[in-house]
Amino acid sequence: MLDARRLQTNLRVPVDGIIGAGTLTALFARMGAAPAIAAELGLAANVHFRTYGILDTGLRLAHFMGQCGHESGSFRYMEEIASGADYEGRADLGNTQPGDGRRYKGRGPIQTTGRANYRRDGRTLGIDLESNPHLLSIPSLGLLASTLFWSRMGLNAYADQDNGVACSRGVNRGNPKSDKPANHEADRIALTAKAKGLIL
Question: In the 8-state DSSP scheme, what is residue 143?
Answer without folding.
Answer: H
